[in-house]
């Protein structure tokens, strides 16, 4: 009897052992009795589809496998298929991760490192192209989870708690209550798909094998689809020339700095640098970004945020390709201090603003150099460098407590210091340089450094040296105007955007109001907050929500026209972005006016005014630096550019020489060769000036006539010679009503008659 009883027990155990279901290698006694899973161990016929239908292949190699995800959520298209190629050995987990990393639309929830390998808890796909891939856990919208390389990680089997940020996306996740992902595989020798009780980490791929992830919602099984929908290749369609960048500090102690991009249609792409560079990021608290030439320079306060395990830190200075966001170089050490700002100086050199001075940067060889003489001194938070600007002759750099340092790029040393407690410095459209203090603007003559003060009537501008940021003090390329946001105190910004008309020297302290000023928690500016599109002249304002903590996950981008009217508002994905500043692409190149002669005869010292001879559609034309690049024979003629932006040609003996003038507009260079025919005119030291110039050229509205002579008459003709009516007022011609094209202008003065060409755009 005892023997028979023991045999019965063994049979009983064997029965339940055989009935036990494993999900991705995990024994699941909890779902043994569910009749809805009875088909799990049965065979299912393979789809008639073959590898030829696959459009999107990830990886390279001689082997290939198919990867299918079937959500069974009644959203189309379901049962999506990708292809995977590899050499050597690869697992099902390798295939899933490679596809998640390559296809930014596909994302997953994984519990990695279990005794059974990685558990696949959830899979999603961005169906509507909204780029809002991310998850909420347990309905907590305050702290969303965003995938890195397509993966959101968890450390337990809590898959049932996750929901997608975008409900329109494919998303299924579960383990104990919602359902679960069942795993079906087929090798080349198999005629049918078979249920795999093992997980993706154990699954060894073969050349020609198939993996299907088939979700069982509510523990109800679905047949594998008869047809699969081929996923089109993921292509990063972001055109970084159309839109603007948002440089982010990011969440200190959690993530390194990043940059988002808002395209011309208003769509926001997040962490575009990280997406392009395999989850690399910037340093900790990225506070400044600028484009110079074809490179984007990102400056962070520290080299790395030690709390960030998701993104690889890039250092205090990261250099990227401005058109593609591909990394060029990264630097942890920028001279021993923390990062603040960057400005391009010439073809070979940039300046790094740091907490301990200004340091040279070799653009050509990508090397951090020595301290610019005279810029050091002071402790980290009493002598730090703020923002810097490059004018046609100098670099103006704000230094805490010391004032504004005027640096001569020719010697890389401080020429003079404008003393005072300045917060920021900018250059206006007319070329004038402006510093701002608590309640005054100070105009700085660019060449004599003479100062003129203008008191701000009622509001204040209080900088942020303690936790430095670039500040809201900014300028317009299209209007001769400056803008900023008023301050309540050193810790709180106000709600008013202030405008200063540089031409009339008048203040409008109620130009525009920051939106979102109702309710308990208000919208407040953060970081630099305010910048102006150089082409459209629209104001871009970044705000976050007051109240500290989780409120800082709420972020808005507001657009105002140049009249102060709010025209658009965008809401960012909830996260602690802490936006530092807006940066606009630099697309246009400088254009040299046809009025600059290609050949000139000189008998005396001859002056050619270069101030308005070159223009740039998306940069300040009067900030363009001019230099003599070469002179084929200095024994025949000398060529120098003086502080008035005048080219002075002085003949030394009779003969011809070629002088090449280089124009640098924010790192974009154009050149003009001038053939100089020199002859000596003994007995005179008088200067001869080229008498007339018209600018800007091309022109949209107002064409200016530059001459020291008295203008007696002006006539405008089209290219056929037909006279055109044009309004002339005080050496200015309104050409806004003309159609685009080439025109001829005849200017008659009391000394001579001149003919010039101009382009109406």
Automatic annotation (TrEMBL):
The keyword Signal applies. This is Secretion system C-terminal sorting domain-containing protein. Keywords: Signal. Residues 694-759 form the Secretion system C-terminal sorting domain. Residues 1-19 form the signal peptide. InterPro entries: DUF5074, Secre_tail, WD40/YVTN_repeat-like_dom_sf. It holds the Pfam family DUF5074. It comes from the Bacteria.
């Amino acid at each position: 009897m005892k023997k028979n009883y023991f045999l019965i027990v063994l049979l009983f155990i064997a029965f339940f052992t055989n009935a036990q279901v494993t999900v991705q290698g995990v024994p699941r006694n909890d779902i043994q009795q569910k009749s809805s899973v009875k088909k799990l161990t049965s065979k299912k016929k393979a789809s008639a589809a073959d590898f030829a239908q696959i459009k999107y292949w990830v990886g390279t190699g001689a082997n290939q496998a198919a990867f299918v995800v079937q959500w069974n959520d009644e959203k189309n298209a379901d049962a999506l298929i990708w292809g995977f190629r590899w050499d050597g050995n690869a697992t099902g987990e390798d295939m899933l991760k490679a596809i998640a990393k390559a296809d930014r639309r596909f994302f997953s929830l994984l519990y990695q490192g279990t005794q059974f390998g990685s558990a696949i808890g959830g899979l999603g796909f961005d169906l509507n192209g909204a780029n809002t891939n991310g998850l909420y856990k347990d309905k907590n919208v305050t702290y969303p989870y965003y995938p890195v390389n397509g993966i959101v990680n968890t450390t337990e089997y809590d898959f049932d708690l996750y929901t997608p940020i975008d409900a329109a996306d494919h998303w299924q996740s579960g383990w104990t209550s919602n359902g679960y992902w069942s795993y079906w595989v087929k090798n080349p020798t198999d005629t049918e798909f078979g249920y795999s009780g093992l997980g993706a980490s154990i699954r060894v791929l073969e050349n020609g094998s198939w993996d299907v992830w088939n979700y069982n919602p509510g523990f109800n099984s679905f047949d594998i689809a008869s047809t699969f929908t081929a996923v089109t290749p993921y292509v990063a369609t972001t055109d970084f020339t159309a839109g603007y960048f948002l440089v982010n500090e990011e969440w200190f102690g959690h993530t390194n700095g990043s940059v988002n991009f808002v395209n011309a249609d208003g769509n926001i792409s997040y962490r575009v640098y990280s997406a392009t560079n395999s989850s690399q990021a910037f340093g900790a608290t990225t506070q400044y970004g600028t484009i110079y030439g074809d490179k984007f320079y990102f400056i962070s306060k520290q080299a790395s945020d030690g709390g960030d395990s998701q993104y690889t830190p890039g250092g205090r200075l990261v250099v990227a390709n401005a058109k593609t966001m591909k990394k060029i170089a990264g630097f942890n050490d920028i001279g021993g201090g923390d990062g603040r700002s960057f400005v391009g100086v010439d073809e070979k050199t940039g300046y790094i603003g740091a907490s301990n001075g200004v340091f040279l940067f070799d653009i050509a060889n990508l090397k951090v150099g020595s301290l610019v003489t005279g810029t050091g001194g002071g402790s980290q938070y009493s002598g730090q460098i703020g923002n810097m600007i490059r004018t046609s002759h100098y670099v103006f750099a704000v230094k805490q407590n010391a004032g504004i340092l005027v640096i001569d790029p020719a010697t890389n040393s401080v020429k003079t210091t404008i003393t005072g407690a300045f917060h920021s410095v900018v250059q206006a459209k007319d070329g004038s340089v402006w510093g701002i203090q608590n309640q005054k603007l100070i105009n700085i003559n660019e060449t004599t450094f003479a100062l003129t003060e203008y008191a701000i009537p009622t509001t204040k501008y209080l900088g942020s040296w303690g936790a430095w940021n670039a500040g809201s003090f900014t300028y317009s390329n299209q209007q001769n105007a400056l803008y900023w946001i008023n301050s309540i105190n050193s810790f709180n910004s106000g709600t008013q955007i202030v405008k200063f008309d540089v031409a009339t020297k008048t203040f409008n302290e109620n130009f525009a109001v920051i939106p979102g000023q109702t309710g308990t928690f208000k919208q407040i500016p953060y970081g630099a907050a305010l910048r102006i599109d150089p082409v459209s002249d629209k104001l871009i304002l970044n705000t976050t929500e007051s109240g500290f903590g989780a409120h800082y996950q709420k972020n808005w981008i507001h657009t105002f026209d140049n009249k102060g009217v709010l025209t658009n508002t965008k809401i960012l994905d909830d996260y602690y972005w802490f936006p530092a500043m807006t940066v606009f692409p630099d697309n246009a190149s400088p254009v040299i006016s046809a009025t600059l002669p290609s050949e000139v005869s000189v008998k005396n010292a001859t002056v050619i005014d270069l101030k308005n001879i070159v223009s740039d559609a998306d940069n300040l034309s009067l900030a363009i630096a001019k230099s003599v690049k070469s002179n084929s024979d200095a024994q025949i003629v000398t060529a120098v550019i003086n502080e008035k932006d005048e080219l002075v040609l002085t003949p030394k003996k009779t003969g011809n020489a070629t002088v090449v003038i280089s124009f640098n507009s924010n790192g974009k260079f154009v050149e003009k060769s001038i053939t100089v025919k020199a002859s000596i005119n003994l007995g005179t030291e008088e200067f001869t000036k080229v008498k007339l110039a018209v600018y800007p050229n091309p022109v949209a509205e107002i064409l200016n006539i530059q001459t020291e002579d008295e203008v007696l008459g002006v006539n405008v003709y089209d290219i056929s010679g037909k006279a055109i009516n044009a309004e002339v007022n005080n050496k200015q011609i309104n050409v806004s009503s003309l159609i685009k094209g080439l025109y001829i202008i005849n200017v008659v003065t009391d000394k001579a008659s001149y003919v010039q060409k101009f382009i109406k755009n």
